[in-house]
Amino acid sequence: MTAPAPAASRQQAAFHPLTVVRVERLTEDAVALTFAVPAELREAYRFHAGQHLAIRRRGAGGNGGGVRRTYSICSPESADPAELTVGVREVAGGEFSTYANRELTAGDVLEVLTPAGRFGLRERPRPGGHYAAIVGGSGITPVLSIAATLLAGDPQARFCLVRSDRTALSTMFLEEAADLKDRWPERFQLVQTLSREETQAGLESGRLDEGRLERLLPALLPDTVAAVDGWFLCGPYGLVQGAERALRTLGVARRRIHQEIFHVDDGSAPPPVAPSADRTPDQASVTATLDGRSGNWEVRPGETLLEAVLRNRSDAPYACKGGVCGTCRAFLVEGEVRMERNFALEPDELEAGYVLACQSHPATERVELDFDR
Ligand code: FES
């Protein structure tokens, strides 16, 4: 079994102009974008299944400062390293996703950050391992890569994919998931649920919520729900939270659950924690190390640490600025911070001392961050 390739380190993280070689329509509101990766950049763009790419379109955005968005890689690790493919679903008012779905064509050039993100398997897979995923909507994108990588890398591995979409027509990567089933019919189990119509298999329509999963999963995986080596949850906040609660109720250990949240727009997210006045120092500074170079700068009142760093180092990593993608993850070397919200870091990363710079406000006069760790 091939172990997942290590993620490119932060020292190597950099934007490069990559040419779009294909724009393929997946659904009425989603496309797959394939970039050509020149030979000299293949090592920098080597990824592990589950990672994402931040894409920057210069000159766009309200102030012309450019728009950055993050999209997961759907290709398996074994794919041709000369190409990288991501899935982009158009969201209402989404500046980049609308452009990608309606205007972008082959031959266009975009700036693409080297792969980042920690979703996926953190350790070498156990030979003959059993894996499963619960995904909603575009949450299929990284899981397609993870499933194909695990199944191709180990002839004994098994994977169960439970996906939830609104309708059959809105389902991204329908053919690609069916291809996995055709290729590994004994080892890949696919269960499609639709919230707004019945499936061909006769599964009831409706949301894939906590209660439904508690009934469905033991029926799908009799006696093995808690024994599955790794559960991958990906999609909207409400679905991922409900799936995690269902798995915990069914006896799955926390360390076997890996999750990535794509959208936090369903009203179910906890409100942001505003920095409290009594924990906000009158004056604060941040020291940040990026690509081996350090600097120390003032943090203005109300600013996040990312905003303070970006005023001085435009190469600071970020994409969503919403606490969701994890691109701005940094190690807290010194001081204390208050994070407004966190949908990206796992409990073990928080315990290890990582924070999201886009959500962090200083709680001590001096704060030091290391973006390279
Ligand atoms: S930029 Fe996405 S979590 Fe901070």
Summarize the entry for a quick read.
The chain is α/β, with parallel strands linked by helices. The chain is built from 7 helices and 18 strands.
Reconstruct the topology from this structure.
Layout: E1 15-27, E2 30-36, E3 52-57, E4 67-72, E5 83-89, H1 95-102, E6 109-113, E7 130-136, H2 140-153, E8 158-165, H3 174-183, E9 188-194, H4 210-220, E10 230-236, H5 237-249, E11 257-263, E12 284-290, E13 293-299, H6 305-310, E14 329-334, E15 337-339, H7 347-352, E16 354-356, E17 360-362, E18 366-370
Parallel strand pairs: 7-8, 7-10, 8-9, 10-11, 12-18
Antiparallel strand pairs: 1-2, 1-6, 2-5, 3-4, 3-6, 12-13, 14-16, 14-18, 15-17
Helix pairs in contact: 4-5
FE2/S2 (inorganic) cluster (FES) is lined by residues 318-328, 344, 356, 358.
Cofactor: FAD
Keywords: 2Fe-2S, FAD, Flavoprotein, Iron, Iron-sulfur, Metal-binding, Oxidoreductase
Pfam family, one: Fer2
Protein model, in words:
There is one protein chain. The chain has helices spanning 95-102, 140-153, 174-183, 210-220, 237-249, 305-310, 347-352, and strands at residues 15-27, 30-36, 52-57, 67-72, 83-89, 109-113, 130-136, 158-165, 188-194, 230-236, 257-263, 284-290, 293-299, 329-334, 337-339, 354-356, 360-362, 366-370. It has 373 residues and is α/β, with parallel strands linked by helices. The protein folds into three domains: 10-113, Beta Barrel (Elongation Factor Tu (Ef-tu), domain 3), CATH 2.40.30.10; 130-263, Rossmann fold (3-Layer(aba) Sandwich); 277-370, Ubiquitin-like (UB roll), CATH 3.10.20. Helix 4 (210-220) packs across helix 5 (237-249). The protein starts with 14 loop residues before the first strand and ends with a strand. Residues 318-328, 344, 356, 358 line the site of FE2/S2 (inorganic) cluster.
